[in-house]
Every structure is written in structure tokens, then in C-alpha cells.
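User: I'm writing a short methods note and want a consistent example. For Sorbitol dehydrogenase, I'll paste the sequence; you return only the C-alpha cells, no commentary, since I'll be parsing the reply automatically.
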Amino acid sequence: MSLSEYNMEKENLSVVLHSQGDLRLEQRPIPEPGPNEVLLQMHSVGICGSDVHYWQNGRIGDFVVKKPMVLGHEAAGRVVKVGSAVKNLKEGDRVAVEPGVPREMDEFFKSGNYNLSPTIFFCATPPDDGNLCRFYKHSANFCYKLPDNVTYEEGALIEPLSVGIHACRRAGVTLGSSVLICGAGPIGLVCLLVAKAMGASQVVISDLSADRLVMAKELGADFPLTVKRGDGPEELAKRVEGMLGAQPHITIECTGVESSVQTAIYATRPGGVVVLVGLGAAMTTIPLLNAALREVDIRGVFRYCNTWPMAIAMLASKKVNVAPLVTHRFPLEQAVQAFETTRQGQGVKIMLKCDKTDQNP
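Assistant:
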């Protein structure tokens, strides 16, 4: 579609959260890109647990929805207009969107940890609008060109995949690592894919849901571990050790559930690393002395940085296959139904298709 064609349509259907529980589809103006920005016709946008959490609760921690906000931050689209100073992209380029854009060149930016910059812009984190809409403008430096053999949906999945890359880097996953992953939701599954691609020799993955563990097995998990509510953390840690024949070097905790964080610490071998990816209660009781006396490092993860180039290379070379994660697709017009499906915990990754003329992956 040419610029003039869509300007005539003046249609920018957007998924807007007004307040807790109040999700609406509404028309917004098509934005005009600044000198360093591009205007994208959005194609595929995944629904994340955080989008649903904002809808259901109106906040995540200190981030509170105070004014209407467009949701969506797992996205890929096509460049339809280019800002005057943009050199890296042209009209028609297919791109994946990195949703976190630093607003200033502070110490975090300079040290390469721009995800930690307190003033960063981030799609669909109050008060910043996301990209679950027909047309969206974004910093050209944070739009990455997709190779021809990588689909728009795979491009949108680079966002969750990046969480896995950042978590595995923070954990130090390398050739021969043994890894426990707690939780087989979308983030647990991308951590599994990345850990395997980075050389992990054996991966145990745990979840309450047998269905999710079936998918985990198909994606390369060596040992699926079914957890029941009420299982003791120390007992679960022993089961993990029994499966591997030794305690894992690394545990990646993706649930945020207190008992699961406790399991992660008990399960990890002395001198090993626990990485906390899942978000739980602000105050969590953990066996800190156990970790301290065994020199188990506990590391936090906040989103990601410098991951899109690696993710694109992994997808283009077919070292990582994220396509099976998409279990449901909805046109943008059915966004509320798609959100309801996600809230009910159906499937793994639900994808919204924003381009009326192209609903393909």
C-alpha cells in the first residue's frame, strides 16, 4: 500500500488500555516520523504476560497506568515512511522492533547497559505507548532489518527470545552447561531454546502444566519435570539432581513464585548461578544462607540489551526455531478476544495480525 492510499484511509486502529479492566479498540491519528524515526505499518504483534497484567491490574510494580496507553511491544512491521536523517533503512524494509529506546546518553548507555537507564522509553510501559496498532513510529536505530528467510512473526518473537538471550548471557550458559529452567511458559521455552543453542548439554524444565512440558520436550528439553502444588522445594531440588546425576551449574527461574525461587537456590550446585527472570512479590523469602555458604550467585535480569543482532543471526541460520511457539492468531479487530484467550492461559504465544491485506506469518 502506498502512502497516499493509507493517508486516504486515515485508519490507525489501536488497542488502547484506558484503565484497569478497560481495553478498547479505537482509531488514532497516523503519527508523523521525526528526523531519526521511521513510520511502520505493523504486521505481527505478540501478546505478552505484561500486557495482560496491565489490563487486569492497571499496574506492574511502580509502573501505573494513569492515562490511556496503546499496548504491545513484541512487534515486526514494514517501513512505509523514513525520517529525513535516517540512513540505515528505506521504504519497504521489513523490520523487527526493539521496544526499549534510551532517551539520553547516560552512564548506562555508555557502558552498554542501556536497558538499565532510568529514563528509557519502553513500548507499553506507562506512560509510553506500544505498537499494537496499524501504524507506529519508532527510532530507526532500534528497528532491525529482517533477512528474507525470517518471517514477520519470527521478527516479533525476537522480543521474548531476547529475554532468553539476556538471561542465558547473565547466567554464563556455555558449552557443556547443565541447566534447570523453572517454568515452561513462553519465557521458560525461549530460555530453553537459547540455552541449547549456546551449548547447554542437559536441560531440566519444570512446570505445573503437562501440556507445556510436552512442547518443552519437542523444543529440545532433556528432562521435563512435572511439579504439583505443595511439592517441597528441597524435595524438588533432589528430584532435579536425580535426573541429571548431579546438581545443575545454572538455574533460570521464570515463574517468580516464592517456592520456585527457593527450589532454584537449593537445586543449584555450589559455585553455580541462579538467574531470576520471573517477577513475583516485592518481598520474597529465600534460603539466603544456603546460597551464601555455597557461593551460589543470584543475578537479576531486567529485559535485555544488545540482543537483536544475535537473535536475527540465530533465526536466519536456523540455529533456533521459534515458529512452534505461536499457537493462536487473531486479526487486530479481534484483539479483545485474543487478550481473553491469553488471560485464560490457552496456548503459548498469541499473535495479533495488524495488516488487513497480509495475515500470513
